[in-house]
Every structure is written in C-alpha cells, then in structure tokens.
Amino acid sequence: RRNPIPDGKSMWGTFGALEQQNQLVLKNALERAGPQLTSKAERKAKMYYESCLDEDETMEKRGAEPLQRLLKQIGGWNVTASGFNVSTWTLQQRLQTLQNRYNMGGLFGWAVGEDDRNSSRHVIQIDQGGLTLPTRDNYLNRTAHERVLAAYLDYMVRVAVLLGGDETEARRQMALVIDFETRLAEITAPPEDRRDEEALYHPMTLAELQERAPFIDWRSHFEDALRLVKRKVTEKERVVVYAPEYLEKLSHLVANYSATVAGRVTLNNYLVWQTVRSFTACLSKAFRDAYKGLRKALIGSEGGEEPWRYCITDTTNVIGFAMGAMFVREVFHGEAKPQAEEMIEAVRGAFKDNFGHLGWMDERTRALAREKADAITDMIGFPDYILDPEALDAKYKDLDIDTGKYFENNLRVNMYNLRRNLEKLDQPVNKTRWGMTPSTVNAYYTPTKNQIVFPAGILQPPFFDMTNPRSLNYGAMGVVMGHELTHAFDDQGREYDKDGNLHQWWANETIERFKERAECMRRQYEAYRVSDRSLNGRQTLGENMADNGGLRAAYHAFLAAPEERQGLPGLNLTHRQLFFVAFAQVWCSAVTEETIHLQIEKDPHSPPRFRVIGPLANMAEFATEFACPMGSAMNP
C-alpha cells in the first residue's frame, strides 16, 4: 500500500527504484551542456537520446512514411500496398534480406558466440526462435490466453491499418499469421526441457545441417551474411545447433506452407511482421499506442512511463558503455571497489568451505570444484577503457547517429550490432569483455568465461553502502555475490569446467546424488502456489539453487567477519536478524497479477516472494534467529 506500482510499470521493488534513480543520474548528465561530454561516443549517445525524445515532433510529422519506405525496400507486405509479388518471392531471398541486411528475427535464431566446448574460440550458433509472444504457452493454451491472443491480433491489425492496410483484410491475413506462429509454438521445446547443456550441444558442418533441415540453402545464407565482413563460407563450416529437431520439423512446416500461393503469402506476412513490430516504437505516437492493449493483456500495465525514462533506457541499450562513462563519473568514485572485492573473496571463501560439508560429493570432484571456485574471475564496477575517450570512440566509430532521425538511427544500430557480432567469428574470445553496461542494476555469471560481473549500477544503497554495518551489506549485496558464484555449480553451470569448457568433469555417482537433491528442490518450489498456479520447479531450478547457495555462502561469510556490537537505532534486532531482513528487503515487490502469471510461464527466476521464503525455509539458522516453531512454514 505504501509503495504502489508507478504508472507504466508492472512490477515495483528495490531493483526498479534504484534503476529509476540511475536513470535520473544519466538524464542529468546528458542534458547538461555539451562540453562535459568527453568523447565522440558520449556525444553520439546524446544525439541518439535527443532523436528518441523527439522534442520537435519529427516522428509525428513523418508518421508511417519511414516504415512504408522500408517495406518497399524489403519487397513488400501483402497486408499493405507496398509492392509484394508472390510469384517472384522466395523464402531464401526474404530471409537473407531481413536477417542479413536488417538484423531481424524470424523462424530461427542465430549468432556468433563462444563455443561451449572450446570457449577460447567463436562459432556460429543456431537455435529455435521466431515466436512474437513471450511463451509457447501463449499460443498453445488458448483458453488461458484468449485475451492475450485477441489483443495480439488487434495490435497487428492496428499497425497494418496505420501503414495503409484495409482493416478487414488485415484481420483475415494476420489471423493466419497467428495460426502459423501457433504451428511454430507446437514444434518449440519448452525451457524446462532445455536445461541440460550437454544434451543441447550439436556440432555439425553446414553440409550436415543441409541434410537435416533443407528448407533453405544454409551455406548461401551464411555466405550472404558474412559478406558484410568479407569472410568466405564453405559447406565444411562448423556450426553448433541447439535445436536440430526443431529445424527438422520447421523444414516440414515450411514445405507445407510453400506448396501453395496462400501459404507463401502467409510466410512472407509472418516474416515481414517480425520487422514491422520491431520498428513500431520508432514511429509516431499512434504506432506506439497500438501496443498498449497487448502490453496490458500480457503484464497488466499499458506502459506510459515518462518519455525521457524510456529514452534513457533505449539509449543505454544502444550505446551503453558511453552512457556508462557518464554514470561512473557521476556516482562511482572507486572507493567502493576494494570493499566489494573484499566481500567477494569472503563469500567465495565461505562457499569453498561448504564443499567440505557435502557428503554426497566424491573427493576428486570436490577438489576440481574447489579449483573451479578459485578460478572464477570477477569484474567490478566498469571496464577501464570507458574512461579513455579514444578507446571508447573506437568501440562506436562505425555507428553513425543523426539527431533528427530516430527510425534511421535504429536501422543503423541493427546493422552495427550485426557487423560487430560477425567480426568475432575468427577472433579469439575476449575473456574480459563486459556483457552488461555499468549503470545496470543487476549482476551475472558467464559459464564459458567462468566469470562473475557486478556493475557499478548495483553497488549502491540499498544493496551496498560503505557506511552500513556488515550485516546489511552481506544480507543484500553479499547474497547477490553468492548467488552468482553458485551459478557456477547449478544444474547448468556444473557442466562447465574451470576454463569454461562444456564437458563432464563430475563423477557419475556424484551427478546422480546431485540430481536427487535437485529433484527435492524442484518438488519444494512446485509446492508453492500463487493465484492457483504452481511454480515451475524445473524451469526455475538453476536460479533457485543460486538463491539458496548464495544466501548460505553470504551468511557464513558474514559470521566469519569481525563481530559488530552496536545495533541499529530504533530496531530491536540483532545483526544476525538484520542480515536476513536485508536479504528479504531486496526482493520486497509489488507485482501485477498478469506479470506473476507471465513469470511462472517464462521466467527462470521464481516470483519475488518465493525467492525469499524458499531459501529461508531451508536455513536452520534463520529459524533459530527468529524462533520459528518446528514444523511451521519457515521451519519445516
């Protein structure tokens, strides 16, 4: 009641509040006069932000024109009068245009990434993909998601009409696109079936992929893409496929649709829709408003946050390390870094000590696990290069930004990102490359780098404050640190060794005993219910393990630190109790009903409430400190 969800949000808690605080820091930095921006990259960020804010209403004046022009350039959309000709249309050509010229999605996903089995090299990775709605369940469980599907169709029709289409005809054709996406959903594996990384990894040549999934010419497709970086491709090119069964079934589905004129029209309508929906946010207000109904159906909020906040987020997504340089100069002055490093080492030490208490782990695996824990590298705050204007400019030198053209800026960003990704193919992996921008309120673990990262954005109150007692810092930030460390040994992270390579390094009997304990945790979380729905214990298993392991490691690290004698004024709580209060406060949230439902279907994390009561119910120390009766919910 005291913290209602703000307009435009579907969830509100400590993460969101700190994120808004960081947005304000960035807004103030950007809106000051230019001389304070020390690099060209920062000036590009300012120009992009101004193009998004659109204070002279250029987007309103241009209306649908930028996207109508793009539709003609890519070969037309049957829903509008944009030059589509089914008799000359081929799937190969359309996919190459949309994926390799404009970096758009559709049918499947691919990118250059770190090879899981040889993490020092890059490889082309191909996976299932192509659904517009957040989950396959949105399509397959029509009774539960009738409102979402109706809102989705209305959104498609509104956009088509804004682009000049006839409403009745647009409704008929886009309903067929939803039918096609439903067929895609039927062959898409659910996330809970995709947690075994070794089982997902299928290396093969393009020639072998061609035999299994002949719906396009794969060599031609990647040769066309890599022409952008002057890289040749042969049928012997080795790729990693994470969903071969999906691509095989997709071949049959595409063949069925390609056999008729109506089917080919639907295929093109679907592919072009993937591009159209990506650019509606870059057009006039009418296009942006078209999404409100679907957003409301999905997450219980129509949006409507202040435009500057949307534009700060968008600019950070696009030129995040230039934004990070401004953020760091404003709020992160380096004093926090040594203390954060000290906390990480303390939590790591407590985490390693716990291996000695795991009776189910054999000695050889235990020794290798300790080696892996020691080998985990950490990066705190920000990458040093962002404070070097020349190095920062070099990162964004190929990105051109025009203050008055938000739509075109987004086109350029897509191509810049595609080129940057393709350039990595023959380059060694940079193990110190950041994957999260400095102002982000989050943290992460990368299994192929065996690395944990804590951006400056989260190293602030209420997560971390150098003036706070250790109980509060360990209860909040210490648990986040422990959470990321635990990911190195969760049901997926444990499959990677200390060098970040995917292979079996645990003994078979230890794996079986680990799985028994994982099954126990799955059952615990599936017993939790919200709005008459059980949590998905398989889908959330890795994050639940990290929540439990992180809490335990941080608590033991806190106990090992020098004892604090003075309590907090006005609170009759010990520091041990304060540790648990600080932990719980991190996840204190207000969430809409729709967002809770979407979290249960899609999110690998449990809803916030269960991220607190689940781990605490598993800790005897919590029950002791708060005198929870034996057999009660928090002391089962």
TrEMBL record:
| One term of GO molecular function | metalloendopeptidase activity
By its UniProt entry, which PROSITE patterns does this protein fall under? NEPRILYSIN (PS51885)
Entry's InterPro entries? MetalloPept_cat_dom_sf (IPR024079), Peptidase_M13 (IPR000718), Peptidase_M13_C (IPR018497), Peptidase_M13_dom_2 (IPR042089), Peptidase_M13_N (IPR008753)
Which keywords belong to this entry? Answer: Hydrolase, Metal-binding, Metalloprotease, Protease, Zinc
Which cofactor names does the annotation list?
Zn(2+)
Q: Which Pfam families does its entry note?
A: Peptidase_M13 (PF01431), Peptidase_M13_N (PF05649)
Question: Which intervals hold domain Peptidase M13 C-terminal?
Answer: 442-636
Answer whether the UniProt record assigns the keyword Zinc to this protein: yes
Which residues, by range, are in coiled-coil regions? none
Q: What is the first-listed, main subcellular location in coarse terms?
A: membrane
**Which residue ranges does the record assign to the Peptidase M13 N-terminal domain?**
2-383
Membrane topology qualifier: Single-pass type II membrane protein
Positions of transmembrane segments? none
Compartments it resides in: Cell membrane
Q: GO CC terms on record?
A: plasma membrane
Q: Which GO terms describe its biological process?
A: protein processing
Domain of life of the organism encoding this protein: Eukaryota
* Family, similarity comment: Belongs to the peptidase M13 family.
Name of the protein described by the UniProt record: Putative m13 family peptidase
Q: Which organism is it from?
A: Phlebotomus kandelakii
Q: What is the lineage of its organism?
A: Eukaryota, Metazoa, Ecdysozoa, Arthropoda, Hexapoda
